[in-house]
Amino acid sequence: MSPSHLILYFVSFLTLIFTPSLAYAGSVEGEVTKQTFNPTAVAIFSGFVILTLLITWRAAKATKSPGSFYTAGGSITPLQNGLAIAGDFMSAATLLGMTSLLFFVGIDAMAMVFPVIVAWALSLMLIAEKLRNLGRFTFIDVVTYRLESRGLRVLLVICSLSVVIFYLIGQMVGAGKLIQLLFGLDYLIAVITVAFLMVTYVFFGGMIATTWVQMTKALLLMCGGALMTYLMMTRFGFSFNALMQAAAEKHSLGADITSPGGWLKKDTLNVWTVGLTISFGVIGLPHILMRFLTVKDAVAARSSVAYATLIMAIFYLFVIVIGFGAIALIWGDPRFYDSAGQLIGGRNMVALNAAKELGGDILLGFMSAVTFATILAVVAGLTLSGAASISHDLYSVVMRKGQADPKTELRLSKFVTLILGVIAVFLGVLFEKQNVLVVVSMALAIAASVNFPLLTLSIYWHRLTSWGAMIGGTLTLVISLALVILSDNVWVKVLGHEQAIYPYVFSTVFTLPLGFASIMLFSLLDRSKRAKREQAAYEAQLFRSETGIGAAEASGH
Amino acid sequence: MVLVDINSRRPEVHALVKARAKMVSILTVILLVLLTFNLMLLSSLSKLGALPVTDAAPITLSLVTSIFVIFVSVFITLFYIIWANTYLDKLTIKARAALGTGEQK
After folding, report:
1. Residue numbers in B near A539 (CB within 8 A)
2. Model's pTM, two decimal places?
3. Interchain pair B42, A261: CB under 8 A
4. Using the 8-state DSSP alphabet, how is residue A265 labeled?
């Protein structure tokens, strides 16, 4: 495909989506209010899409093997990968959700801020280098490095795909509503637009294109965050004290915005379950872990995660300033509330309303376009991870026992990408009026309670066996999902019962220890010959995870 | 699975494993203590977390420590990178040399 074809392809698509007569006449429930058409947002977003499609066209030439498709052949530099990891991880929820939470509940929202940065520092030291030395294309390669059971790999594929699909639903529904809000598009068109671009990036450009989309998005997000923080601080003479004083004077909580204990039903365990889910869910997200394998060696993986941690720490500091600053700027200001007394656009639009106050329609347009780019970058990473789980972990390793024809595997990856695009649209529409916190809770619960213990124990505990991993992992998976179903989000809000059986938001505070304990217990009970072989193989695994000898051949980089 | 025929109890490999484990353990414990303490300030120790640290603005202990945890995490990240680049990588090279391979420095 030539660049001119790509641009024509894109222009035709834009024409289609911006033609009102073709627009789907659906409505969106909840707190979303459709905004007026913002030409700045459309112009900046169009520029982003054209740029990333050109990158995709270039990347398509280099995407000729499973290795290049899944992990860019290890050709990504540490700085690029650090930016891409930050771009992959920081979703629209980071910018919009966190600022909104700080705006409404104050200091308690910090339970979702600092654990992220702690998690990245832990991930650097505990996971990054060893994962790169042991893995090939996915984190499942690492967990099953010395564990022989193909059933375990199937379980891990189920966990990985569950996380990807649950997360994808959350992103697609959020994307549909946000794009409807920000660009004035209808929900279905918005969802199709996101799925179309996501599939285009991954199908043609694989990991290289996905990386560039994520890097570009991370840079735009950092620029937007820095600009908003700068403009915010100019309003308060660059004094954080003055900003906080102004925020306390405006907010209905007064000075209590910085006193903890008002959110999460004032329940200690609720705070813990949120904090632990955020911390350890991050380390178990398959699309993020896959990024550690896109660099040439463990040293590069280490540097990548360090860059990513630095970038995200700076951005989260921006979020703190924007969140509290927004209170001082727009809390109670009638220009930002509708006739029903609700914030214009809904509760999640704090950052964008603040952008409008700080920089008018131009900054609002820029931040809206950045938000759209943010969603695209995250869904592209999720799609690629889902495709790798099926075509590499399931087809190539389990079904073909590692003897799959690379061309067939690549074709299958691309086919799965298309299918995931269709599934994303279907589920996006199906879950349009559902509470997406449910599926996001499930994704994070699995990542934190199943993926994280399995990955950590496979790297650090020599007694781990296939049987222990299978039984303990399955038990934890089932209990994690059951607790989410019994929680307020499903039991009350979806199934209509009066009171939740499980009173917390996430299951992690119970299922994370359960995951470790059950996997370890069943491993210790395993006295089979296979268990002895697997335990004896730990020394060779430790050797490779420390020195990297053999990693280059295995990864195919 | 690629099993390498080695003896990881060789002194060079052992030194590498030990050095990494020691440093990672210390830094991980520091991070987990900070994470735990700060989550406690937001939950069971919320009265302590609500203590003001200045009279000039509503800045409380939990806000300061939350930001402090972010800075400490970044500091530990940078410290680990510098330590690994200057010390751990040398041990890795030694271990690899002892095993007769120069692959992937």
Report:
1. 6, 8
2. 0.88
3. yes
4. G
